Protein 1
Amino acid sequence: MTGCESVPLLPEPKKRDREMAYQPQEIFFRSNAPVTVDEDLCIAHKGCTVCVDVCPMDLLAINPATQKAYMAFDECWYCMPCEKDCPTGAVKVEIPYLLR
Amino acid sequence: MTHSAKNRSTLEQEYDIVVIGGGTAGPMAAIKAKERNRELRVLLIDKANVKRSGAISMGMDGLNNAIIPGHSTPEQYTKEITIANDGIVNQAAVYAYATHSFETLSQLDRWGVKFEKDETGDYAVKKVHHMGAYVLPMPEGHDIKKVLYRQLKRARVSITNRVVCTRLLTDEEGAVNGLMGFDCRTADFHVIKAKAVILACGAAGRLGLPSSGYLMGTYENPTNAGDGYAMAYHAGAELANLECFQINPLIKDYNGPACAYVTGPLGGYTANNKGERFIECDYWSGQMMWEFHQELESGNGPVFLKLDHLAEETIQNIEEILHSNERPSRGQFHANRGTDYRTQMVEMHISEIGFCSGHSASGVWVNEKAETSVKGLYSAGDMAAVPHNYMLGAFTYGWFAGTNAADFVAGREFSAVDARQIETEKARVYAPLDREHGLPPAQVEYKLRRFVNDYLQPPKVTRKMQIGLQRFSDIQRDLDQIKAHNAHELMRAMEVSMIRDCAEMAARASLFRAESRWGLYHYRVDHPQRNDSDWFCHCHLKKDEKGEMSSFKKAVEPYIIPLDAEEMQAYDRLRVGAFAA
C-alpha cells in the first residue's frame, strides 16, 4: 500500500509558538450579594464607615462613584454587625442563597 | 487597587508585647499586661476590627463553664473535664482555669457584662454537663465586645486593625522577637519587633468544608482560619492532641448552634425523628457526638432539637435569647424556611471538622501560665490547648498570658531581628500579587477543604488519610500558582496556605495516634478500640530540625485530683438506657 505515502505530512508544529497562542483567561462568577444597602438612608457620603469598619471579613466598601456603602466581596458569614451597628438602619443582611 | 511593588511600603515598629487577635482572650491579655505594668507598650493587632472581631463578634448567650462558689468546685470541674476528655488532660492547666474562673467572671461583671441572676441576686446557674452545674445564661450578652472595647481604651492599649499576621520572627536562641504581616487593604508589609508575643487567633475553623458547600458558611467565624496554629508551628512551638478534632452538632445548613445549652435548662432536648431523647446529656463531647452521629446515620435519623412541647412564654424567651445573641440571623433562617419552634422540630446536622481547644482539646500546647514551648511566646483562647475551655477559659488564659508576659519582658531587651527571615516572608507574601496569572484563592481553598472532608472527616480510615497527605502536598505546589488581584484576595491566598498547614497537621496527628479516643473526634475504623496501654498519653506535633512535621508522645502529667474507676466511665454512658455498670 504505497498510496499512503502520497498523503502530505502535516507541518511540524512549532511547539513554542503554539504554547504562546493559549493565553490565560479568567471568568468571573456571578453572585447575589447577601448584604444590600438602602442608598437613601446610607450616610457614607458624610464620612460614615461603620459597616465597612465592623465587617469581620472586610467585605464592604464605599463606592467612589456614589459615595455609598456596598458589598464588594461575596464571603458573607451572615453575622450581622454591619446591620446592627449602622446608625441609620440602611444595611440589610440576608442569609446567603446557598444556605437559605 | 493594583498594589504594585513600587506602591508598597514596609512599616517597622516595636512594642514590648504584641497580642495577635482581638476577639476574646486577646483583649483580656492586653488589658492585664497593662494592668501589670502601665509603662509597657502593648499592641493588640487584628486582621478584622477589634470592635467586632472573633468568635464573640455578636456577643454570647451564656457561660458554659463557670465555676461559681456554692454551685460547683474547681475540684469537681477538673474531674468533669478529665472524664469528658477521656483522661488525656494536664490537670494543672484545667485546675488553674477552674480556680480563677470566678475571679474572671467577677471582673467581667464589674466591667458591665450582664449575667443572669435569680431573685436573691445569686447567679442563676444551670446544669447541662453530665455531672456538675456550670452553665450561666447571659440573655443580655450581646454587648460583651463593647464592654471589652471600653476597657481596652481605658487601659491605653494600642490597636492596629486590618493587618493579617503571617509569621513570627525568632532570634538566635529560638525565642520569639517579633512578627510580620500585611495590611489587607493597602498590602503594606509590617515588621513589628516585640519582647513577647501572645497568640490569641481563635480556632482553625476553615479546615473542613461545611456540608452546604458554602466556603464561608462555617461554624467558626471564618476569619479564624488557623493562622495561630500555622504561626506557632512555623516558630517551632509544640501543638497538642490535634487529632481530637472539633465537631459540633449544629442547625443544618445554617451551621450555627441550635443551642442546647440555652434550651436544655428550659426543657428543650436533642431528639431523633420520633421526637425521642437518645442522649442523656447535651453537653458537647466526643462521646456525645458519637451518639449523635450514630443516630443521624440510622433509621431514626436525622437528629432534631425539640422545643415544640414547651409553653408559649418559654418559647418566646428562647427566641429572645437565640435571635439576639451569638448568631442572631438564626431567627431569619428559621423564618425563611417556615420553621417555628412552637410547631416544628429544628433539623440538626454535624459540623465540618476543625481544631479548637475551646470545645475539644486540639491546640497549641500551653502550661498553666499560658506559656508555649517557645520562649517569649504565649497563647490563649480557642487555639491554646486547655481542653473544653470555652469563652470564660479564653478570658482566664488571656489574663494569665497578659500578666505572665508582662513579667517576662521586665528587664528584657529587644533582640536583633533576622533580615533573612523578613526577606523570605516578604517574598512569600507578595508572590501572589506579583504573579501575572494564576489560580483564584477561593478555588484552591475549595478544593483543599473538600479534600479535608473526603480524607479526614471521621470515621477516620488510615489509607484515606495517607491519600489526603498526598493531596495536601499537591496543594502546596498549587500555592505557588495562586494569583491575587488585590490586597483582599492576598489575605485569602495567605489564609489558604495556613489552612493547608493545618490540614497536614490534622492528617499527621490523626495517623500518629493508632487507637480510637474521644468518641467521634478520633474514631479510627481500622483501630476501633481505645488502647490505654499504648496511648494513654498526649500526642504532640512540631517542626523538627529538618523542617518536617514530627509527632511524638508525652506522658500525661500526674493527676492532682484523683478519680476512681467508676467516675472515669461516666461519659461512656451517654446513650439513653445505657446500662450503668
Protein 2
Amino acid sequence: MRLQGSYRFPTAIDRVWGALMNPQVIARLLPGVERLEPVGDNVYEAEMRLGIGPISGRYKARITLSEIDPPNHYRIRIQAQGPQGTVDANGTIDLTADEAGTVMHYEGEAKVTGLLMSLGARLLEPTAQMLVNQGLKNLEALLTTA
Amino acid sequence: MATRYFGVAMKRREDPRFITGRGTYVDDLTLPGLVYAAMVRSPHAHARIRAIHKEKALQHPGVIAVFTGKDMVDSGVKSLPCGWLLPGMKLPPHYPMAVDKVRHVGEIVAVVIAEDRYTAEDAVRLVEVEYEVLPAVADGAKALQPGAPAVHDEAPDNICFRWSIGDKEKTEEAFRRAHKTVKLELVNQRLIPNAIEPRAAMAQYNPATDEYTLWVTSQNPHVHRLLMAAFVLGIPEHKLRVISPDVGGGFGSKIFVYPEETIVTWAAKQVGRPVKWTARRMESFVSDAHGRDHITEAELAVDEKGKVLGLRVKTIANLGAYLSTFAPAIPTYLYGTLLSGQYEIPAIYCEVTGVFTHTTPVDAYRGAGRPEATYVIERLMDVAARELGEDPAEFRRKNFIPPDKFPYQTPVALQYDSGNYEGALNKALEIVNYKALRRQQEELRQQGRYIGIGFSCYIEACGIAPSQVVGSLGAQAGLWESALVRVHPTGKVTVYTGSHTHGQGHETAFAQIVADELGIPIEDVEIVHGDTGSVPFGMGTYGSRSAPVGGSAIVLSLQKIKEKARKIAAHLLEAAEEDVVFEDGKFYVKGVPDRFKTFQEVALQAYLAHNYPPGLEPGLEASSFYDPKNFTFPFGTHICVVEVDPETGKVKILRYVAVDDAGRIINPLIAEGQVHGGIAQGVGQALLEGAVYDENAQLLSASMLDYALPRADDLPSFEIDHTVTPCPHNPLGVKGIGETGTIAATAAVVNAVMDALAPFGIRHIDMPLTPEKIWRAIREARPA
C-alpha cells in the first residue's frame, strides 16, 4: 500500500517542524494512538487501536524517526503487531517554506499482513488516506489556534 | 438381470435427512468432556520464528494447554507424508505445525486447547509469536527467477521437480514440417475449493485400551488412517479408528492428510480429553489445499490440410509451500497424459516444472489436472481453427480419433479403450441448432450485439485407477476398491463400500445396483461407508472412481453371493446347480418357474443351515477387491453460447449444452446433478473465481467478499444430454461423471467469449474473464 500527498499550513516552517518533532503531537496525529512513550533517541513505543470495520484490534507499535534534517526532512517507520496482523510502514516527510507558510510533502509505503490485509485490502488505502487527511487537519487546527 | 432400478432417475435416499437438517457432520458430534482446539496461524508468508510466548494464553481462564510445533516434533511426530513421488523430486519436511520457519500465510505455529471454542479463539490472540519477516514469493514464474527467495533450503532454486512426457525429437520434427503453428500463453489461475462444510476433526484417546478414534471430514478414511497412524503419529493402525460421517462436499480438498486432524489426534492424548476443531471459513481459505495454478506455453503444429501434426506444452505448476498428499501427480500424470484430448495427434511433448512458493499448498481440485489439459488443447484448437479460417466444429471433427481406431494408444501413455467423439459432437450441434445460431450471430453483429459460440470436446481419464499402472508412475498406494456384502438371515442386505461419499448420492446409486442384482426391494439395501471400524480397507472417493471402481467391487461381491445362494437353492430344490436359474429375486429350476425359492428363503437357510448342502459353510456374505484393468474415458462435447456487452464487458451465458458420454448411467437424476455442479464450478473459474496474492504473498481473496463463487443468477438453465458408449472393461459399463462438467466448462465458456470478441481482433484473455478485463481488452482493441 502506498500513500503520498501534500498539505499546506499557513504557518512558519519552524513551528510546523517543532510540532512534528513533539511526541505529544505525533500521538494526536497518528490514528488510534492510546499511549506513546519515548524509549530512546527518536524511538517511541505506542499502543494503537487499528481497524477497518470489524477487523480491529490493539496493536503494539514501535515508531522510529531517522534522517532528521531540521526543519526540512525526516523519515518515520512504524512497526505495529497485533492479533489481526502486522503493519510495517516506512515514509518520509519533507517541509518547504514559502511566502504563505509551509508545504508538507509526504510519501510512504506500508506492508500489511493478516486479516487486516486479506479482508481489508480493498478498504485499506482509502481508509489510510482518510486517517492521514484527518491527522493533518488536526495538526493545522492545532497550529493555528495555539 | 432385470433392471427395475438401474437407469431409473430415482430421488436420492439420503436427501430427506440432508434437507431436514438431520445429517450428521463432524461438527454436529460431541463427547463427554470435549474440549476445543483453535489454531494460531502465521500472518506472514515467510518468516523465521524467533520465539513463541505461551504464558499469557495459559493464564487465561478456561485454557487447558498450548502446544507448538517443537512440542510435537520433540514427542516424535513426523512430517506429513506425500503419497506420490516423482523421480528426483525434492521432498522437504512438512510438520503439522511450523518448527523454525513459516512458509505461507495461515501456516499453523501453535494450537490452543480450551474448555470451549470461544475461549480457545480468544486465547489464540494471547499467544505472542516473535517473527523475523523474510522476503516471500507467490508467483510460480517469479519463484524460478534467479535471486527469488527460496522456500526450502532443500530446493534453493524453488524447483521441486522437472517432469516430461512424450517424444521430444518427434515433436520437434512435426513442428519443422508444419504448414502453420499456433502458439498461446495461458494462465490457469489458482482456485480455492470452498466445500460448503468446512473441514473438521474430533479425536478421542482411551488410555484403558490405548485406542484412538478420529472423526474427520475425509473422502478416504482408510488412507487417512494409514498415513496418519503409520507415518506421522506412530500409532499402530489397529489402535486408530477413523470415521467420516456425512461429508458436505470436498471436490478433492478432503482427500488429503492435513495438519489439523493430526494435531487434534495427538493433542487428545496429551490433554487426556477428546478434542475438536472446526475450521472457520477464513481458515478454509488459507488452509484447504488450493487447486490449479499453471502458467503454460503451448503450441500446435498443423499441416496444409488442417490435420494436427504435433503439440508442444511447457507448464510451470505452482505447488505452494509444501507438498500436499497427492500434489505431484496432478500437474504431471493427470495432466500431461490428457493432452491428446479427443484428437489423433502423432507427436506430443510436454514439460512441467513443479515450483515451491510461499503460498497455501496446491493439490487435486475437481477434475485435477484434466481441466487444465482440456483448457490447453481446446483453447489451442479454437485459435488454430480461427487462424486457419476453419469452422471450430469441423476443424475438431477432422482431427478426432475415428471410432474404428479404438483401443487408441496416445503418444502420452494412455490407451483410450472406447469412444465415439463425432456422435457427441453431432448431438450437441443438433441441440444447439448450430447453423441457425451462426446466422443469428452474424445478424446480431450487424446490430452491434456480440454473441459467441464456444466448443469444448473433452476427454477424461477417470475410474482411478489400475494399481500396477499408478504404482509404476509413482503412486505410493494401489487404487483398487473394496466391497463387503452381508446378507442378513431375512434377506436384508448391508453393503460396506471402501469408497466414500461427500455428497454424490452413493447410498442411492449403489443400492440401485444391489437391489437389481439380487432382485430385492431397494428398501432392503443399506449402504455403509466411511468407518474404518466396519468397512474393509478402501481407497475412498476421488477421480470419478466410486461408480466404476467402487461399484464394480460391489458387483464382484454380489456375484459371489449369488453363486453361493445358487448352491443352497439347488440343494433346497433338489436340482442340479447348473439347472437353477436366478431371476427377479427367485431361484427356480430351468423350465419350471413354479418351483422356486425366494432370495429371502435361501438367505434364511444359509444361517439356519438345517437342510444344507454338505461341505458348504453357513452364512451369506462376500467381500471383493476390484482392481480396474484400465482408466475409464468419459468424453463429450459442451457448447456454450454467450453474449458480451461491449460497453461494460459483462458476459451473459445464454445457453449451455452438455452432451456427455459416461457409459451406462445408474441414476440419470444424480448424473445430471453432477453435471450441473461441475459446469457451475467450471463457469466459476472461467468468469469469476481466482485466488489473488499480493507481492508479499498475502492472500487478498480470503473471504466470500473477495472470492467470487458462482451464484444461481450467473448460470443459465443447462441443456443436458448423453450418448452411451459403455466402458468395455468393467462389469457395469460405467465410466464416472463427477468431474466432466468442470473438465469441459472452462474451455467452452472462454472459447465462447473469444468468439464473441473476434470482431475486435481479441485473441486471448486469461481467466477469470471479469467485466473489467474484457472492457479493457475491447478499449485497447478499439481506442475510443
